[in-house]
């Protein structure tokens, strides 16, 4: 092999090596500094508001938004299921391994369930909100259907007894043709004859009010039904890396002050500027439906650039 050919081959090897390192980094997601990223459950009424969790890179503590890693604070999400045939219903099983190396078997119920499992394709298509059942050995099982080919992100949202709320994520493949879906900006969603309007502005690093108004056939819906101890559940995902935020509304059914629609009010804090996909689960006439939105953040809050103090943990808001 002549000198030019040797240099060309060496350059190709370097390109592959650096390309692989870049792909591994983007799979985990970016570390952010300055703003305490909000993860897990949030919103008024959540006990203590939880903690902002941190990751460590080269000895420097950084804030890492929820759902970007399978291991955090000593807890690890593991699964024996790595692929599911698109369009079929197959069992998805997983465990949460605790700091002691054993499967966690004690969880606190959060909004009527000990485990919330969010499933979405990497382009944010095919969203599902599932509730697995746990066997005594700590193995969780749930029937899962991935409608299209591609890579899906699975988020386990839970509270281990005696610990802080956690959101861990891992990928599952659905072998088949992947046709990415583009999502245009949208603040009005149509689902099964219902129209849901989103009002309010997401602002990075600041708790922002969001109001979702539900109507059907042009008339406001004033008899929403409780679903998991609330009139609605909102999940926000940052496009690109799927940083995760699960928010619950202000007030609760039966508290004497929260109406059953048409408006559901949330407070949400997103970790950075960018585009977010929002998914609202609500129940009416005995059926749960999901409304989807695509929104950009507004101007950055000048107060957000304060670095975390002490141990790097911050408030969820």
Protein described:
This protein is 8% helix and 38% strand. The chain has 317 residues and is mostly beta strands. The chain has a five-stranded mixed beta sheet, with no helix packed on it. Strands 4-5-6-10-9 form a five-stranded antiparallel beta sheet, with no helix packed on it. The chain is globular and about 50 Å long. Mean pLDDT is 80; it is low at 1-62 and 301-317.
The shape is: globular
Q: Note the run of SSEs as H and E.
A: HEEEEEEEEEEEEEEEEEEEEE
Give the helix level as a range of percent.
under 10%
Low-confidence stretches: 1-62, 301-317
Tally of extended strands? Answer: 21
Can you count the helices? 1
What's the end-to-end separation, in Å? 63 Å
User: In oligomeric terms, what are we looking at?
Assistant: single chain
The largest sheet is: 5 strands, mixed
Give a quick set of tags describing it.
21 strands, mainly beta, 5-stranded mixed sheet, 8% helix, disordered C terminus, 5-stranded antiparallel sheet, 317 residues
